[in-house]
Amino acid sequence: MTAAGSRTVGGVTVVPSVIEGAFRFEPAVYPDSRGLFSSPYQDAAFAEALGRPLFPVRDVSHNRSARGVLRGIHYTATPPGRAKYVYCPYGEVRDYLVDLRVGSPTYGRWEMTELSGDNCRALYIPVGVGHAFLSLRDDSVVVYVMSEGYVPANELAVSPLDPAIGLPIPDDLEIQQSDRDRAAPTLAEARERGLLDDYDLCRNVEAKLWR
C-alpha cells in the first residue's frame, strides 16, 4: 500500500484523496526496450473506489503544454457540473485538486500529484472540485474524460496563485497563463460573488450521473 486506506485491485492501487470524494489510481506499468504499456483506467478499480464503473462519458479532450504552463484552477458551474477522469500519457505535470464546494468537509483544501507518461497515474475529480496543473516538461499532454460536454458559459476559474489557497508553485519556472486564468478571482472573491457551488448540490448532481 502507498497510503492509508489504499487498496490494490487488478494491478491498480486505489488511493483516497485528502479531497472528499476524489481518488488517485496508480496502475501497474510494464516497461521494456520498446517503451511501456499501462492501463490508466480499469472498471474494477474504479468500482472499488466509487461502488460503480466510470460515469457515462460525454466528452474526451486533451491539451498539450510547454514547460511552465499553468492551467486552472478550473471548474464547471453546477448544475450541470462535470466529473472528470484525468491522466498524463506523455510528459510530466504537477497536478492540483482544490475543493471549491462550499460546505464540504474539505473545503479550501488542496492535493498535489505528479502525473506523467512514466507513472501513468490517473485522478477522479468529483463534481465541484477545482483542477489545475503545471507542466514540468515541454509538450506534456493531459487527457480529460468527462461526464458532460463543454459549454463555455459554464466554465469558471479561481486563481491558482491565490496565497490563501497556497498551491506550491516552483520558483524556478517561468509561469505562463492564459488571460482568463490571470484574471481569475481568488477563492474568497469567488465565494463572495456567489460563483462557488454548494457541496450537497454537487454530490446530488454527481450521484445522478449514473442514473
Automatic annotation (TrEMBL):
<dbReference type="InterPro" id="IPR000888">
    <property type="entry name" value="RmlC-like"/>
</dbReference>
<dbReference type="GO" id="GO:0008830">
    <property type="term" value="F:dTDP-4-dehydrorhamnose 3,5-epimerase activity"/>
</dbReference>
<dbReference type="InterPro" id="IPR011051">
    <property type="entry name" value="RmlC_Cupin_sf"/>
</dbReference>
<keyword id="KW-0413">Isomerase</keyword>
<comment type="similarity">
    <text>Belongs to the dTDP-4-dehydrorhamnose 3,5-epimerase family.</text>
</comment>
<dbReference type="InterPro" id="IPR014710">
    <property type="entry name" value="RmlC-like_jellyroll"/>
</dbReference>
<dbReference type="Pfam" id="PF00908">
    <property type="entry name" value="dTDP_sugar_isom"/>
</dbReference>
<protein>
    <submittedName>
        <fullName>dTDP-4-dehydrorhamnose 3,5-epimerase</fullName>
        <ecNumber>5.1.3.13</ecNumber>
    </submittedName>
</protein>
